[in-house]
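Weekly puzzle thread! Below is a chain. First person to post its structure in token form gets bragging rights.
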Amino acid sequence: MIGLSAPAAGQSWFEQLLDWREKHISERTFVLMLAFAVGFFCAVAAFTLHWIIAQIALLLTSSFNEKTANWLYLVYPVVGIYLTGLFVKYVVKDNISHGITRILYAISSKRSRLRGHNCWSSVLASAITIGFGGSVGAEAPIVLTGSAIGSNLGKLFRMDNRTLVLLVGCGAAGAIAGIFKAPIAGLVFTLEVLMIDLTMASLLPILISCVTATCFTYIFSGSTSLFTFHLDAAWTVERVPANILLGVTCGLLSLYFIRAMTLCEDMFSRFKDKPYFKLVIGGSMLSMLIFLFPSLYGEGYHDINQLLNGSTEADWNGIMHNSLFSGHGSLLVIYVFLVVITKVFATSATNGGGGCGGTFAPSLFVGCFGGFLFARLWNMYEVGVYVPEKNFALLGMAGVMSGVMHAPLTGIFLIAEITGGYALFLPLMIVSVCSYLTIIIFEPHSIYGMRLAREGKLITHHTDHAVLTLMSLDSVIDRDYTPVSPDMELGTIVHKISRSRNIFLPVLDAAGNLLGEIYITKIRHVVFRIELYHHFTASQLMTPPAATLRDDEPMTEVMQVFDRTHADWLPVLDADGHLKGYISRQRMYGMYRKMVADMSED
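Winning reply:
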């Protein structure tokens, strides 16, 4: 029987366990075991979050009269944002917004290391926000939670950076699979959005995480789907023109969604040092919008199900309950249009005011309402053959999500899986692809990646770019240099050269600013002439560097500077112009080649 060996001096039981694991369990097998654990914890987190949201919403709104407007809609969202802000400020003490963007940043810049509190903080913060009516989604916080679980499990068991990236992908995939009971969508989401490369080494762990999360979610919450859909009218080829036009419309809706969201975020960012002012502005905007359009309350999944399952005008008019529009069926088109336009502002106000949530659910919401509105107007004005409103509401969900996230495969498989709408697989493909082709004309990156793309920190499937993004400028800086002052005489400089291991000496002023460089090869004509040792100073012998680099410069630009200057060494300066060190072309390219080789292994 295999047992733990005798403990080494000072070793804890966990260190003994790690040593035993390394000796008796292969790395590949252990990664599969970790993927299973990640999937299980993702299912637990997803179930916990939705349960807390449901309990809070039930407690607050169960007594509402659906035939009239309710003034409490003006109060609940503000309270939720305020409580979330207090929780983040005094308990979490860290920024937990933009969950999926934070994952992308961790992969590209922090070697896939997410903080421990991300395993639970986003769950509680988003539950408070959404339960009190915040118009955001729970998916991005759960994806951040799942990725943090994978990252921290990997760190706990001393996995290397490459395995950490894979475990982060397993967490994200498991989170999507657990929330929606959609394992294929979880897999393709990780490939499309997080840019985890599909190799034989990564496919199986991600699949295990997805299937595990899905199965345990079924165990925890039963077989009911997040959305229900029953196909009444089968798809026909005559609807292809309508499907194409819907896809283009969804692409334009996605563009509106991204641009409006960015505009609102920029506005709220101006008041980052005034949290209470942000609360007043965001809370007032959100509560007023929810009071006018109660469909904006929370994730909005109840109203999505009404549009997907309605068959009569009375069913569809139900989305106007609790509003000033209630009982006025003739205003349904106007109501749906206004909800589509204002949803992005409600989402921005929620997050901008201090709440916590994602844009995943809002994109589904806008797509559903937008698809329904498209079909209703198409039929009202008899543009072409009749199109079923509920079918187009479903197709619109895939279209807008594909455009906003730049992930057509995720849109196709997610909507097909969560609704059982496989009979509409072809139109789902048409709408999603047309939406994606439309949005990339205007926005080359998704709503999650655009912030990082501007900084050159976005991982892509392009191996060369991915390697350069993952490379850390700080890790290749050589800080072992011998500085000289501008008034130092040649004799002293020669003494410095004899002690230096480099072929150059940086000339710095008293504040540490780089003034120039002295290369040994350029002063050979005077270095051995002792009679000149007191006639020349460093300021007379120095030459300007071929170029200088900033310490925050992306590696793609660093490579371009080396290629342009043909330099062997280049100085790196901080934001104040002080010299931090030098980068060697040889060392940089050596690290680059090693990382390319590592990424190419299956």
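Puzzle host: Confirmed. Bonus trivia for everyone else. The longest strand covers residues 514-519.
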